[in-house]
Amino acid sequence: MRLAVLGVGLIGGSVGLAARTRAQADVAGWDPDPGVAERALALGAIGAGAEDPAAAVAGADLVVVAAPVGVLPEAVGEALAAAGPETVVTDVGSTKRTVVAAHGGDPRFVGGHPLAGAETAGVEHARADLFEGATWYLTPTERTGGVLYERLHRFLTALGARPYAIDAERHDDVLAAVSHLPHVLANVLVAQAAGTLAREDERIPASGPSFRDATRVAGASTAIWRDIYLSNADALVGRIDEAIMRLSEVRETLAAGDGEAIAAWNDAAAEDRRGLLESGLAGGPVHELRASVPNQPGVVARLALELGRAGVNITDMALYPAADNRTGSVALWIAGDDEAGRAQELIAGLGFAVARA
Amino acid sequence: MRLAVLGVGLIGGSVGLAARTRAQADVAGWDPDPGVAERALALGAIGAGAEDPAAAVAGADLVVVAAPVGVLPEAVGEALAAAGPETVVTDVGSTKRTVVAAHGGDPRFVGGHPLAGAETAGVEHARADLFEGATWYLTPTERTGGVLYERLHRFLTALGARPYAIDAERHDDVLAAVSHLPHVLANVLVAQAAGTLAREDERIPASGPSFRDATRVAGASTAIWRDIYLSNADALVGRIDEAIMRLSEVRETLAAGDGEAIAAWNDAAAEDRRGLLESGLAGGPVHELRASVPNQPGVVARLALELGRAGVNITDMALYPAADNRTGSVALWIAGDDEAGRAQELIAGLGFAVARA
Question: Which residues of B touch A219 (CB under 8 A)?
C-alpha cells in the first residue's frame, strides 16, 4: 500500500505515523513548508519527502490532502490531476460542502473529516494513536467508486478510526452544531470571563475544571478556524440564532425564578447528554452481513450513507465482484446485535438481498 | 484539630478524607441520609459518625457545612448554634450572597467555595486529592475573626487547596461568568445537538473531543444546580444577556463573510484565554512578608481580600498577637517574586507597616 500525504502537520503527520506503524504503508509526504516536511521525515511520520505534490502522488494507492479548508478545492484538484485512475483521494477538512461541490463528480474523490485533533498543532505533536476510536466522517457521492471507497474505509479502520458515511450538506450542518458552535461559545466565554475577571486591577483565578473544559478550544488556531467559520457561515449562523433563542428562553425562566421549569430544563439536558454519549458508543459481538449488489457506481456509497444515517458503524467492509463483473457482493462487519439487525433491515430496504454470513 | 463535616457526599467526604490523611484531623461526620454517613465511615472519609449535626459540631475547631445551596442558610445556622465561641464554621456552596447575608455578621462564619468537583457525585467518588491545586474561594466580612480565618486558611492549604479571599457579591458575579454561564451553554449545546443529530431516525455520533469537553457539565445534578441557578439568577441573567449580545455580534460578522473581522475576533479569544490561564498560575520562590496590624476584627479579612482582588495567592499565613493584645503581626507567605512585591505594596497601601522577613 502506497500512501501520499500532502500537508504533514498534526493531522497529516499523524496519518503518516499511523499508516506506517499500523498499516505497513509506504508513505511519501510533501508540505508547502520544506522545514515541516524535514521534521516529518525525521520523526518518521513519512518515509520519504517529495519535491512537489505531483511527485508524492505518483504511484500512490491513496492520497490524503491535509490542507487548510480555504485552499482545499485547489489542493485536491492538484492531487486528482496527478493521481492515476485507480487512486483514491481524500481530505481531512472540517467542512465538506465546498470541496465536494468542486470534486464530488470525480469517482476517485471522497471527502473526509476525522473528529480528532488537539489543542496543539504541528508535526511535533503527531501521534500514531491520534485516531484511535475517533469518528471519521466520509462524504461519498453517487459518483464515488465502490472499490476506492472500500480501500479508504479499510485504511481508516486500520488507523483505529471509525468511518461514518454522511452527506456533505448534512455533515456541515451537524458540525455547525457539534463543533463550530462550541468553538464560538468558547470564544464568547473567554471574552466575557476576561472582561469580568480583569476589571479594576483585579486578577481572579478562573481555573475551575468546568471553565477549563468549556474553554479548551477558545481561540483555536486562526489560520485554520477563520476558513472553517467562513466556509460554513450559513449553517453556523442558523445554529447561533437557535442558541440565542434557547438562551433567551432560559433567561426568562431564571428571571421569573421558576424553580420547576429550571429543574425540567436541566433534567432534559441530562437526558440529551446521555443520549448523545450512547449514540457515540458501539459494541458487542461483530456480525458479518453479505449483500448482493449490482456492480454500479455509487452502490457502496449508498449502502454506507444509509447505515451512517442510522448511526450504524461499519467495523470493516470488503467487496467481492462476481465473475460477470455486473454483480457482486459486499461484506459488512457490524458490531452489536441490534446494530447488525438494523443494518440488515436497512440494506433490505434498499432492495438488495442480504444475509448473515 | 477536630473537624466536623455536615453532609458527607463527594465534597464533604473528600474534605474528610483529605483532613484525615493530610492534616491528621479527628473527623466527625453527619449526613441527612444515614446510609451515606455509614458509607463515609466505611470508606474512612470520617472517623466517627454523629447522631445529629449538634453532636458532630460539639467540640469541633472547624465545621464544614457541605449542604445544597438551597438549605445552606438554615444548615449553617444550626451549625453556628451548636458551635462554641472559638469554632470557625464554613460552607462549600457554589453561591455565596445568600448564606453570607444570613450569617456574615457572625465572626465565626466564613463562606467558602472550592472550585473542585467532578461529573460524579456521592461519597463513593470522594478523593483525598480532590482539592490539590484547586482555587478555594473564601468570603470573609469585616466581622470575621482573624484567628478563625487564619485557622481555616491553614486548614485549606493543608488539603492542598489555594484559598483566595473575595467579596461575596463579587464571587457570585465571577462565578456567574466562569461556572454558571458555562453550565447554561453546555445545556444549550446538548439540546441543540440532540435536536440536530436525532432527527429523521438518524443517530449520528457526536463524539468529537471538543464537543465532549464543551458539554461535560451539561445536565449536572438538578438537585444541586436548580438551587445554584435560582440563588444567582440575577447575576446569571446579566451574563446571559451579555452572551446573547456577543453572539449577535459574531453572527453579523459571519453573515457578512468578513474574514478579517472573524480572524480578529478569534485572535482576541486566544489572547483572552492565554491571559486567563496565566492568571490561574503562580509560582517561583516563596517570600515571607510580615505586616504589623491592629488587633481588630476584620483586619485579616481586609488583608486577604486585598490580595485576593489582585490575584495574589497566599500560600500560607500565621498570626502573632503582641503581648499587649492590641497589636500584632501577620506573616504571609507568597509564591513568586512579582507577587510578593505586589503584596508588599498592597499591604503598605492599606496603611500597615510591612517588610520581608
Answer: 266-274
